[in-house]
Amino acid sequence: MTPRVTLAIAARVLTQLRRDHRTLAMLLVLPCLLQALLWWVFKGSPLVFDRIGPALLAIFPFFVMFLVTSVTTLRERSSGTLERLFTMPMGRLDFLLGYALAFGAVAAVQASVAAGVAIGLLDLDIRGAAWLLVVVGVADAVLGTALGLFVSAFARTEFQAVQFLPAIVVPQILLCGLLVPRERLPQVLEFVADLLPLSYAVDAMEHLATSTRSGEVWRDVAVVAGFALVALALGAATLRRRTD
Amino acid sequence: MASDAVVTLEALRVVRSGKVVLDGLDLEIGPGVTGLLGPSGCGKSTLLRSMVGVQRTEAGTVTVLGVAAGSAAVRDRVGFQTQSSSVYDDLTVTENLRFFARVLGRPAGAVDRALDAVDLGSHRDDVVSRLSGGERSRVGLAVALLGDPELLVLDEPTVGLDPVLRRDLWALFHRIADAGTAVLVSSHVMDEAERCDHLLLMREGHILADGTPAAIKERAGAADIETAFLTLVESGGPA
Fold first, then answer.
1. Which of A15, A99, A194, B184 is 20 to 30 A from residue B220's alpha carbon, by CA?
2. Residue A242 and residue B53: Cβ atoms within 8 Å?
3. Across A222-242, average pLDDT
4. How far is B56 from B9, CA to CA, in rounded Å?
5. The complex's ipTM?
6. Is A81 in contact with B87 (Cβ distance < 8 A)?
């Protein structure tokens, strides 16, 4: 691994995003709009929004970064640019960390905007420190990026890559506590939910919403980061310098 | 011959999805401009990919500039262009080159030199997706030139180009070779043969002939390389 190469890749990914105004707008504005929509849906029962609002802040970065990363890395594999990079002095970790850095930075902006809108405009009640919302958001986004990198190895087309969303992301959303608090899920599902990374991200956000203590938040962030590291390692295993 | 070999292949065997593409190939490539000519699907790309270390091989060794192909010690000394241009469509020409220059650890000046070499200076701020196919493949070539490589491996760089541009590119390949870089160019167009210092004729994973264009024609008793190729195929097996 070479810091020069890692940073070059991160900067290049950000340049590509900057040129793609539509994607950038989707990354930053869409989560806020969806949040506002849900707030509106539950206008008659504000307690519900207070309960699911924090969970949404955890879900968006994960969902969006998973999608964006799986498609971009697939493009990188199929256009030959990844192979070209492998003929150069680039290590696998440079590639993975470059992507994680770039999308982590975007996630920091995304999380700040989304948290700002939720707290400032939609009156979401957060007891903990607002900056911790951003930390959890970034950890969450890096997890999404790492999983996206990993699954891109199993898709041949962008069409297939998008199908991984309902396969890998949606079950986590259903089980993370958004619909029903996890402890009220059937026992088997509760057990499964405890094995899924998004549950911990949602936990962290809920702790932030209900308590000023940050110990539990950091513990959850550590779990999410652990999952992200495992996903990055799996992603590294799918990146082969030599292919058929 | 062995002393000045830039690339040495020994008993190289490559199997791709159950099909043997290269079966125990021995080959040496020296300095100058070497043309690898053969029909589509004969294994040219597989051979070139083996030399830059991105092809999974089953047996045999590939030595490039004295070390194993694709090893860290040689990756910044070899320039490679694939058949697709392998650059980022959504970035400008300069952004692409700057990125790859940073990966290679080359100064910004290398970008301008590479742009001039492929005559793309006037398109430097254009987004690659808006360029023509020929211009795009020249961006790919510029990336391959960035690192001032000692070996330049180009997979069909002149396909589909305007004849004037093709002539200019071949002149460029010779200038690069004269400056000391070994240049290996693949093509499925036989009339490009005369432009090479050295020729490798390839068919179905085997090298039919290995020599200067004049020597190959003489050996086959043919007036041009296309006829020589046919004669060699019909006489059966490598010459």
1. B184
2. yes
3. 91
4. 14
5. 0.90
6. yes
